[in-house]
Amino acid sequence: VQLQASGGGLVQPGGSLRLSCAASGSIVSINPMGWYRQAPGKERELVASITPGGSTNYADSVKGRFTVSRDNAKNTVYLQMNSLKPEDTAVYYCYADIRTKGVRRDYWGQGTLVTVSS
Hints:
With 118 residues, the protein is mainly beta. It is built from no helices and eleven strands. It is 0% helix and 58% strand. The radius of gyration is 14 Å and the shape is elongated.
C-alpha cells in the first residue's frame, strides 16, 4: 500500500491551496483518512480527518478555513486550504487507516511542503 500526496507549494497569505492524497495497493477498505502537519521545531499535529461516511474533525486553528473531503471510489482524500496564514507553513502528511488482507494499520504519505509567505 502506498499513499501519494501532492499539491503543496508557496502561496501568499490569504491565498488557497488544495492538497490531494491517493492510496493504492491491495486495499480491502479504508477507515478514517486525513492530514497531519509538522512545522519547524514543533510536534506533528492533526489538521483534519474524515470517516468513510463523511464525518469530519478539525483542529481549532483551521476550523472555518480548511475543508477535508474524500472520494471513496478513488481512495483519495483532499484538503482545501483557504485564507492561509504564515503559521500554516508546515510539511503536511496524509494518513489512512487501511485494511489489507487480514491486517489493519495506519499508512502515511511522504509529506508535502506548504509555505505561506509574502
